[in-house]
């Protein structure tokens, strides 16, 4: 794929990988990450599984093989109005969760916002966002994705559970405790609402111990 950057007067070539098997693809895919300046991480707006795989599969892989490389989060298939289970608000929530500087919804079929996606990628490369804080040596970010089939937690109860007063109902007590503990560890928990299913994404930074305690 060729992306022309007229503002910087340069052309970048993105390699296409044609692999025969899924096993080979999984093994060789990380080789293409080397030397990347930016990643366009896309999910389908009409696929809940695609949305969940961003945090469950792709972010851990990219952070492992290409730490520090900025990510543009992209929601595709914008040309399917009414069929998309993923809202713009949920896309923004995911953007904040993974630390992406930009979230854009687009359609390759109608070309809506396609140019904006590549413009955002070029801007991030030429003007990288400032890092909030530098991680200490040995410090890693851990992503934990949990999906549970059930009735889910209503919006009104979520506000009650995560309010300043804590929670007065026993429903969702484990989620509340997890959130409180993660805050003490400078982590966070994201609740992805969906009828009949509760999904949680827990993030926390872990630092390797400098010496063993006897």
TrEMBL record:
GO terms for biological process: small GTPase-mediated signal transduction. The keyword Secreted does not apply. GO terms for molecular function: GTP binding; GTPase activity. SMART domains: RAB (SM00175), RAS (SM00173), RHO (SM00174). Keywords: GTP-binding, Lipoprotein, Nucleotide-binding. InterPro entries: HATPase_C_sf (IPR036890), HATPase_dom (IPR003594), P-loop_NTPase (IPR027417), Small_GTP-bd (IPR005225), Small_GTPase (IPR001806), Small_GTPase_Rho (IPR003578). It comes from the Eukaryota. Signal peptide: none annotated. Residues 139-206 form the Histidine kinase/HSP90-like ATPase domain. Pfam families: HATPase_c (PF02518), Ras (PF00071). Belongs to the small GTPase superfamily. Rho family. This is Histidine kinase/HSP90-like ATPase domain-containing protein. It comes from Arachis hypogaea (Peanut). The lineage of its organism: Eukaryota, Viridiplantae, Streptophyta, Embryophyta, Tracheophyta.
